[in-house]
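User: Before I run my own analysis I want an independent prediction to cross-check against. Here's the chain; please return only the structure tokens and, at the end, one sentence I can use as a sanity check.
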Amino acid sequence: MLNVKIFSFNPLQENTYVLYSKNKECIIIDPGCYTVPEQEKLSDFIALQGLKPVRLVNTHCHLDHVFGNKFIAEKYDLELFIHPGEKVVLDYAPTSGLMWNLAFDNYTGILHDLVPGEFISLGDEQLEILFTPGHSPASVSFYSKTSGFVIAGDVLFRESVGRTDLPGGSPDVLMRSIMEKLYVLPDETIVYSGHGVPTKIGHEKKHNPYVSM
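Assistant: Structure tokens:
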């Protein structure tokens, strides 16, 4: 079973995830740490747990999910994994940051592709890469069948869904992503979202006013 640590960072209260296995390897997903104290809170946890970061990934590249990419990459000598369709969003993030009065230094290192249908290994566990666009052009989610959870980014929230009015967003595409990629998962699957509290697939199928079954 994978351990899941959640941090809420930056003025947009984005959820940053650290997934770690019993062998102490960890994956950092969507590091939103914006201030030095937030960076220290994340790195202190990793040090305290004796973890070894082995991969840096983004579900999507809106500014609140990428603030900490450069910090994590430099501190742990990692390169960034994203879906190639999100590069345009990543490149635009600093401009978006200025619009929000949240200037930051963007990650400019080597990019690696996240390929839907493939798996990311972490210890004895695997995360399946699901293609879940709609909130952003090429958002992905990470599903652990054995641990019973999905990291869904800003696709699905507790009784809500991601906004679709940003560039590359589409309400129709988002609904298909949720119905065809997330709602087909077991009802007991925990949904870890990019903002807010966790939920479960079964709860959302019954109670989500935007996409119910």
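Sanity check: The longest strand covers residues 3-9.
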